[in-house]
TrEMBL record:
The lineage of its organism: Bacteria, Bacillati, Bacillota, Bacilli, Bacillales. Its main location: membrane. It comes from the Bacteria. It is a multi-pass membrane protein. Belongs to the sodium:solute symporter (SSF) (TC 2.A.21) family. The chain crosses the membrane at residues 12-30, 50-68, 89-110, 122-143, 155-175, 201-218, 238-263, 283-310, 330-350, 356-376, 383-403, 409-429. GO terms for molecular function: symporter activity. It catalyses: L-proline(in) + Na(+)(in) = L-proline(out) + Na(+)(out). The keyword Lipid metabolism does not apply. GO terms for cellular component: plasma membrane. It is found in: Cell membrane. GO terms for biological process: sodium ion transport. This is Sodium:solute symporter family permease. The keyword Transport applies.
Length: 438
């Protein structure tokens, strides 16, 4: 396959085995949001909340792996989630689902770039706008020009830096300073972090798992990796990736504790970067900076690549046949436009990542049962199933002022389930009646 071919841009040159498939998934799912939300989760819900955050991504990948084999069995010609949905849904249902995919994908990109803005501003003494401009230019080159080939090659380097940082930094610090002083400091200044009978944390764990599974289930970049991993290895790859991912938030919480055990803190988002003041080694400081930069660039580039492919292959190409040159031109235009829009928005708007996670959690929760129904169905799926998620999204947002954002996510999850259940009962009764009449 020629490197200038658009197919190479979408899928890369070779199918991935378990080892490199795991590396690719870890590079996609260890994000800037992971770095920012882990300290916030620790401070709000203690160590129990960190365990819940770990389960959020871990079980999301593992559960999706159970469906991945069914996804691959549908067709060998599919390369994206849009291909799969186009084969299963009617026109109205397809465009509704693609709209949801674009909204959630752009939200995911926004979170990555917002995380990049916060992290770069804290690490490097440059204005947010200029730091973001350089960051987005790097993402444009990697995803818009390099494609899956470059993403696959860089995944190994990114994962090496990630695990190098989360393993070497705590081990080095605890060897030099000892574990006991850190524990005593946490016990003295922040004893609530060690309180495990926290019922709010338990509620958070189950809600986070629901959101995490919904995120993975409709993530365009993850679906691309389903199709580039060897068919017989796909389930094992996702299971192993989920188990490994669970260690990352736990490791990040140990870095936060290195900062917390000495007393108070100014801001949740600065906790990870106050670590720099605690480290005495220039090597460790450089390693931590590389960890932050590689993490956010890898995740953002993967998402940007997936959005571009979805837009060109599953939206524009349905209206007109595109030549190879036109596919590349549309890809450059789409990725460039998204980068510019994100640069403007993120430079002037920085909400709380955790609040946004629960806000969009209604969409992720509402889409779970309809997507599972679509994946497991043998034939075409009616519009009622696709639009069932709309009832969940609307219902969840309507009850937020009454019951709160976290509880509303379960409303968003339950309503589409009821719609799908009633539809299934109707189909069974209708078929039985028709057989009886015949």
């Amino acid at each position: 396959m020629k490197k200038g071919n658009y197919q190479f841009y979408m899928t890369g040159a070779v199918k991935l085995g378990v080892a490199y498939g795991v590396v690719s998934l870890i590079a996609r799912w260890v994000t800037g949001n992971t770095i920012l939300s882990s300290p916030e989760t620790l401070m709000k819900y203690g160590l129990t909340g960190v365990v819940g955050y770990s389960l959020m991504g871990s079980l999301g990948l593992i559960l999706f792996g159970l469906l991945a084999k069914k996804i691959r069995a549908a067709s060998d010609e599919h390369h994206t989630i849009g291909d799969f949905l186009h084969a299963k849904l009617s026109i109205a249902g397809y465009w509704y689902m693609v709209t949801i995919l674009m909204i959630t994908s752009l939200y995911s990109l926004f979170i990555q770039v917002m995380g990049a803005g916060i992290l770069l501003h804290l690490i490097y003494p440059v204005p947010v706008f200029y730091g973001l401009f350089i960051f987005l230019a790097i993402c444009f080159v990697i995803s818009g020009i390099g494609g899956m080939g470059w993403l696959s090659r860089m995944a190994g380097v990114n994962v090496t830096i990630i695990f190098g940082a989360v393993i070497i930094i705590p081990v080095y610090y605890f060897i030099h300073e000892g574990v006991h002083p850190v524990y005593e400091g946490i016990k003295l200044y922040h004893p609530y972090l060690l309180f495990y009978k926290n019922y709010d944390a338990v509620w958070f764990i189950f809600t986070a798992i629901l959101i995490g599974f919904g995120q993975v289930l409709i993530d365009c970049a993850t679906w691309q990796r389903v199709y580039i991993i060897r068919k017989e290895k796909v389930r094992a790859t996702f299971t192993l990736a989920g188990l490994i991912w669970a260690t990352i938030p736990l490791a990040l919480s140990t870095l936060v504790m290195i900062v917390l055990f000495g007393g108070g803190f100014k801001n949740i988002y600065t906790l990870m970067f106050e670590l720099i003041n605690e480290l005495q080694s220039s090597f460790l400081i450089v390693l931590f900076a590389l960890f932050c930069l590689s993490t956010i660039s890898s995740a953002a580039s993967s998402e940007l690549h997936a959005v571009a492919v979805l837009g060109v292959r599953n939206m524009i190409q349905l209206f007109r046949m595109l030549t190879e040159k036109e596919k590349w031109n549309w890809t450059y235009l789409m990725t460039g436009t998204i980068c510019l829009v994100l640069l403007v928005i993120v430079s002037s708007f920085s909400p709380d990542p955790m609040e946004l996670l629960f806000f969009f959690g209604n969409i992720y929760a509402a889409i779970i049962i309809p997507m599972i129904y679509i994946i497991l169905s043998k034939g075409s799926v009616p519009n009622a199933i696709s639009f069932a998620s709309l009832a969940g999204i609307a219902g969840g947002f309507l009850v937020i002022p009454l019951i709160g954002s976290m509880q509303s996510i379960w409303v968003s999850f339950a309503l589409p389930g009821l719609v799908c259940l009633f539809y299934r009962i109707y189909v069974l009764l209708f078929n039985r009646r028709r057989v009886y009449q015949e």
